[in-house]
Design brief:
About 35% of the residues lie in helices and about 20% in strands. It is an alpha+beta fold and about 625 residues long.
């Protein structure tokens, strides 16, 4: 850059080890998506403008005489460079070291971790994480970043230079304008990015909705009556009117999808959206999207809360997903623009702001409404459910006020549907005979185990429908949820079934039960005759309000100290194995009795305390 002078000190620094790793992986694996570097750098530049605009609300001296915030992309074909600059907030020397020399973002770490797994689709990862500044090295032989913080003097600027090979240099420079320029010296095979038409179309595709002008140089046609060659001028190539401020009827699906893309960097289109303007005592606009695909570990990462941007009068304030969305809707994306919140809101103010709470409850309602609408299109809804159902379920526990609305949105496999088709609770109720009192369900560690639970035998025989809940979270949800539309939920694996119709027990049966009871007294509360089984020999049953066995085992394995509650062992007196046990002498009785218990554990999807012993037992019996 020509407006800087070099001071003699140039300091050499080494990248953090992780940065080196990231650079290496990125350059080698993102080759077929090279153009994303432009999106990343423009998005950084726009963030820098956002930050300055926000800070200037309380300190307008920061803008000085340069109040038109913009981003410029300049190409130099002769030298094979592309320069992305902004007149945003800029960075101090320390900030450069901190932001550009290390990986501070948790998102990048996550990206790195996922990138190391060989079987993931890398182009998909880019969409989900955004790879930031370092992506410039996919196309760069060398990157030179020059920056000056908006509140610092011209002689306090910094130049950072690196070839991406493990080291960078830092140098104090003078820089007349605030903000940041990134000069990329393109690799030989990346010359295409110095071509005007190529770069222009990439920017329009990826950054078309950036709310600051992205300018490129344009040479106007020569006027006929003029002798002088016209000189090139800066011209914005994007549409900076905030899309959500436009009337719905002026917006096409492509407009909405394009905006979604630039908002999220998602490489897949949105599944659906809802755009609403509220005017009156308080005015705000919301544009909410449901993505088509969930980010990697959304189900388990309950703390990852980004994706809903808060604007006040079109000024970007902050990502306020945490303030505007409950956890169970953390997959939603979009913007909320309020006309009434003060421009200088802080996170603290937002926490207990009345106005914001109202907006939040409206955002929740709109989101649930949108999902309900998607629900009318089965195929589309299944797409949604596969990705986000497990997260939405948390809402049953988390959002008591909207529990019914959330409940209507849930889907479950059922013992009565074919090919694992899902059912809603509403459909379950429609199918169920009038005299049936409960909505029956079973929870298990996974869908397969739920579907093959021995507890289902009696219900299948009776033709009673059972919901097959095979998500880990189900047991937790059902622990908090007791009824739907006036019908109570009941687990088929808990408590006594048909108390009034106890199976008849002979004296011999009772003897057998007592012997088993004595043998298994450390493992079960009680051995009793069952009326739930037709094909299996035995099953485990927990008390009416106890935690399901698979959940108890899971928590124990995770090292949690949970109150020990032993299950009941219910045995099927009609079963061949049980009859055989009854006739067996002492020595083999122990093995067979233990086996009966172990079978029951296994068919719950449980793990045996001592698998080796189990194997020895079987071998003894076979021999
Ligand atoms: P991200 O932008 O996702 O945080 P990056 O690696 O792209 O990750 O950038 C790291 C940090 O460097 C940014 O968070 C920001 O603080 C700083 N930064 C990058 N580019 C600019 C810029 N043009 N102006 C000011 N700060 C910047």
């Amino acid at each position: 850059m020509n407006d800087t002078t070099t001071t003699p000190q140039t300091e050499q620094h080494t990248f953090q080890a992780e940065v080196q790793q990231l650079l290496h992986l990125m350059v080698h694996s993102l080759y077929s998506n090279r153009e994303i570097f432009l999106r990343e750098l423009i998005s950084n530049a726009a963030d820098a403008c956002d930050k300055l605009r926000f800070q200037a609300i309380s300190d307008d001296a920061l803008l000085a005489d340069d109040s038109e915030l913009h981003i410029r992309v300049e190409l130099d074909k002769d030298n094979n460079t592309i320069t992305i600059s902004d007149n945003g907030i800029g960075m101090s020397r320390d900030e450069v070291i901190e932001n550009i020399g290390t990986i501070a973002r948790s998102g990048t770490r996550q990206f790195l971790k996922n990138l190391e797994q060989k079987d993931v689709d890398q182009s998909q990862l880019i969409g989900q994480f955004g790879v930031g500044f370092y992506s410039s090295f996919i196309v760069a032989e060398q990157v030179t970043l020059e920056t000056r913080r908006a509140d610092q003097q011209a002689d306090q600027a910094t130049r950072w230079v690196s070839a991406g090979a493990g080291e960078y240099t830092l140098e104090a420079i003078e820089r007349e304008q605030r903000g940041t320029s990134v000069v990329i010296k393109l690799k030989e095979d990346a010359e295409e990015f110095a071509q005007d038409y190529r770069t222009r179309s990439i920017i329009q595709r990826y950054s078309g909705h950036i709310s600051f002008p992205v300018q490129m140089l344009h040479t106007p046609a020569k006027q006929e009556d003029s002798d002088t060659e016209p000189s090139p001028e800066w011209q914005a190539i994007n549409d900076t009117t905030a899309l959500w401020t436009k009337p719905k009827q002026e917006l096409s699906n492509e407009d909405y999808q394009g905006f979604y893309q630039s908002l999220t960097n998602d490489h897949k289109p949105a599944l659906s959206w809802t755009h609403n303007k509220v005017e009156g005592k308080q005015s705000y606009t919301s544009l909410l999207y449901v993505p088509e695909q969930a980010p990697f570990d959304m189900a388990y990462n309950r703390d990852e809360r980004t994706g809903l941007k808060l604007y006040v009068q079109r000024v970007f304030i902050m990502d306020a997903a945490e303030q505007l969305l409950p956890r169970y809707l953390r997959f939603m994306r979009g913007v909320v623009d309020s006309s009434d919140l003060p421009l200088n809101v802080s996170r603290e103010i937002l926490q207990e702001n009345e106005l914001l709470n109202k907006i939040k409850s409206a955002v929740v309602k709109r989101s649930l409404d949108m999902l309900k609408k998607i629900g009318k299109d089965q195929e589309k809804y299944l797409k949604f459910w596969e990705q986000f159902g497990i997260v939405l379920k948390e809402g049953i526990v988390e959002d008591f006020g909207n529990r019914d609305a959330v409940a209507d949105l849930l889907r479950f496999p059922s013992s009565k549907t074919e090919n694992g088709e899902l059912t809603s609770l509403h459909e379950y109720l429609e199918r169920m005979p009038e005299e049936q009192e409960h909505i029956w369900y079973v929870t298990a560690e996974n869908p397969k185990t739920a579907a093959s639970s021995p507890h289902l035998e009696w219900f299948r025989e009776q033709g009673i429908e059972v919901l097959l809940m095979g998500d880990r979270i189900d047991e937790w949800v059902m622990g908090h949820w007791h009824e739907y539309a006036g019908k109570s939920f009941k687990s088929i694996a808990k408590g006594e079934l048909n108390k009034d119709e106890k199976p008849e027990i002979s004296e011999d049966d009772q003897k057998l039960i007592d012997r088993l009871q004595e043998l298994l007294k450390d493992k079960v509360q009680e051995v009793r005759a069952t009326n739930r089984l037709t094909a299996s020999a035995a099953c485990l049953v927990v008390d009416e309000h106890a935690m399901a066995m698979h959940m108890q085992m899971m928590l124990q394995q995770a090292g949690q100290d949970i109150p020990a509650s032993l299950p009941h062992l219910e045995v099927n007196l009609e079963h061949g194995l049980v009859k055989r046990i009854a006739e067996t002498a002492d020595e083999q009785f122990d093995d067979l009795g233990q086996l009966l218990f172990e079978q029951a554990v296994l068919s719950e999807g449980g793990q045996l305390e001592n698998p080796a012993e189990f194997v020895q037992r079987i071998n003894r019996l076979i021999a």
